[in-house]
Specification:
The protein is an alpha/beta fold. Helix content is 38%, strand content 12%. It has eight helices and ten strands. The strands form three sheets. Strands 1, 4, 5, 6, 7 and 10 form a six-stranded parallel sheet that branches. It has a two-stranded parallel ribbon with strand order 2-3. A two-stranded parallel ribbon has the order 8-9. The longest helix is centred in the last third of the chain and has 23 residues. The N terminus is likely disordered.
């Protein structure tokens, strides 16, 4: 990472964490599927039960945009980020009605050049329809946050600087034209992220980006998230909340611990 930053001395450092990473749940599809080899689908019944658990435990699901704004005001107690990757059409059909019932909000990360098509990148999974242009426009008008998931659902690590810029800038431009307003959130396809990717996202003008795992890059442009599957009931969600806090504490400890060079005495 230091070598990459040294090659770009004009770039300010990436904003690091300003406090504990907020708890953000990662969903994909909400539907009834007989086959789910990638474990990306939560049934509507299970999803409703998960949202009910959040509500009963005094939590409120919000978009990542709202969550970060609340955190900046030191007013994020009880808020949980809800994210839906890939832009499946079942978000509008099955997830939105449940979220509205509980007064929740969420962020949908979509691939603008694939709207109205299918999830062709999942070679072994069931074919799933993606949100259409009209559905994305309606969702944004109704107050749901629409974020970018890049172009073509392509992993960013390993791309040239030019292709990284295209992925980040052009997907944002296309979505802003579509929704008629700013698009400030990005989500890395497959959760794959490295330093050049975070720099490209930042330079494209996004306010934040979501990854999956805690890592040395954890911060504003690599927010960790918690995978949620169809097997996750109340006890598993509670355990995952605790695991998130533990991993965040470990990540913070590693950041604050100086790395000794070989030969240095204690």
């Amino acid at each position: 990472m230091d070598a990459e930053l040294a090659r770009h001395p004009h770039r300010p450092a990436l904003p690091g964490p300003t406090g504990p990473a907020p708890w953000i749940l990662m969903y994909h599809s909400v539907a009834d599927e007989e086959e789910d080899p990638y474990l990306l689908t939560v049934s509507p019944r299970r999803f409703a039960a998960q949202m009910d658990w959040l509500h009963r435990t005094g939590r409120r699901g919000v978009s990542v945009r709202e969550l970060l704004h609340a955190q900046a005001r030191d007013d994020a107690a009880g808020l949980v980020g809800l994210t839906f990757d890939d832009g499946y059409a079942d978000f509008a059909r099955h997830a939105v009605p449940v979220l509205r019932e509980f007064g929740f909000n969420a962020t949908a990360y979509v691939v603008p050049d694939l709207l109205g098509t299918e999830n062709g990148w999942d070679s072994e999974g069931p074919r799933k329809k993606l949100l259409t242009v009209g559905q994305v426009t309606e969702l944004a008008s109704a107050g749901w946050e629409i974020g970018s998931h890049g172009l073509g659902h392509q992993a960013l690590p390993g791309l040239t600087a030019e292709r990284l810029a295209t992925q980040c800038r052009e997907s944002r431009r296309a979505l802003e034209e579509l929704v008629g307003g700013p698009v400030t959130g990005f989500c890395y396809p497959y959760g794959a992220v490295d330093l050049p990717a975070t720099l490209a996202v930042r330079d494209a003008g996004y306010d934040y980006a979501c990854a999956i795992q805690h890592s040395p890059l954890t911060g504003r442009f690599a927010l960790p998230r918690c995978y949620v599957g169809d097997r996750d009931g109340a006890l598993r969600l509670l355990a995952k909340a605790g695991r998130h806090r533990l991993r965040d504490a470990v990540t913070g400890l590693r950041r604050s611990t100086p790395v000794r060079r070989r030969g240095e005495s204690s």
